[in-house]
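Incident log, structure service

09:12 report received: a user says their structure output differs between two submissions of the same chain.
09:20 pulled the input from the user's history:
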Amino acid sequence: MKYTAECTEIDKYDVAVLGAGPAGAAAAIAAARCGAKTILIESSGRVGGMSTAGMMSHFTGTVGNRLYWEILNRAAKKNSFASPHITVIDPEMLELTYLEMLEEAGADVLLNTTVYDTVMDGNRLKGVICANKSGFFVYNVSVAIDATGDGDAAYKCGAEFVKGREADGKMQPATLMFKVAGVDMERAVFPPSFETLVETEKGELQALAKEKLPHPAGHVLLYRSTIPGVVTCNMTNVTDIDGTSAEDLTRAEINARKQIIPIIDFLREYVPGYESCYLIGSASLIGIRETRHFKGVKTLTKEDIENAVQYDDYVVYGALFNFDVHNLTGSGLDVTGCQKNFKQKNGYTIPFGCLIPEKIDGLILAGRNISGTHMAHSSFRAMPICVGTGEAAGIAAAVAAESGTNVRDIDVREIQNRL
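09:34 re-ran on a clean worker, output below:
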């Protein structure tokens, strides 16, 4: 332990879930539903991560795990206007849905609280040290679930990882989402991918964006929202960002916000239906796509996804998304990426071992920090699949806490039966 401040010890929880994004929220709901005394700890003031505070437009990709579909259906029923599709996100209604489901399951939630360190007994995690305005606290738990995205707890435990792309450590760029109103929805265009080309009287939009927008911005991604006349823009772009560095995160926030006005000027000038659009809001959480890939008992690969491998020891099933590799040095799709031309349509599985750090006990990974290669990660980082790994992690943690079994020794069939 590296901390020196006086800590208050808390022993009343079986499971601590760290990070309240889609994976963490799902993990806490699943663990609590299985009867484990669960606390969800989040560094910001909101639950939902990128799906709410990140102002994501919609859930991309899909997964078979049932909790994902329950979240979608419950959130859709709260929308004030008819949604174009159940996967389109109303951030406020989605956040209320998470909160309701957490409360119904009996999970406690603690916001504005940061994971500071971990308490280790050899290679076994015994507790999580957290800091907030009230002081320092040690949560002594049977199992912790790291759903922080960057794997902050796993890092503190000393779990092995690779950061970014294996060859050179480069990571996908960061994006700050924003919304514009005043869009003429009858004439508006909605390019959903980098590979979507839209011809206009002034030229093809992706080519125009690359020419007219300040580098490294330079693509057009526009999505319908749940509110008439409002469009979600996925067009800011900041490269060479390490999401585990506070300095880099600050630079990303500032540079992304500087790009918003030039992007709106571009929309007004070149994109049909956006001539009178104006900014109404931007995300409070910048989107970090990639940082640490932890070494697990098993590692998901590009080939697993391309071949739709069906593992017997699966805990996530029906996972389907393309290789969404954003350009690591500029705008648009990276040369290794594949979106609309992605050929595998059958869905793949994720084995339990991808959620288990190879050498650390008492800890489960969930979300984009699970064990996988850079290319595999570009698929399983999609939010529906993160919900799937979260649900599996929550069930596994509850089973381990109830039985006193080491997480890695759980019979995976117990998890599958509850899925």
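09:41 both user submissions now match this output. Likely a transient worker issue. Closing.
09:42 reviewer note: The chain has ten helices and 19 strands. The mean pLDDT is 96.
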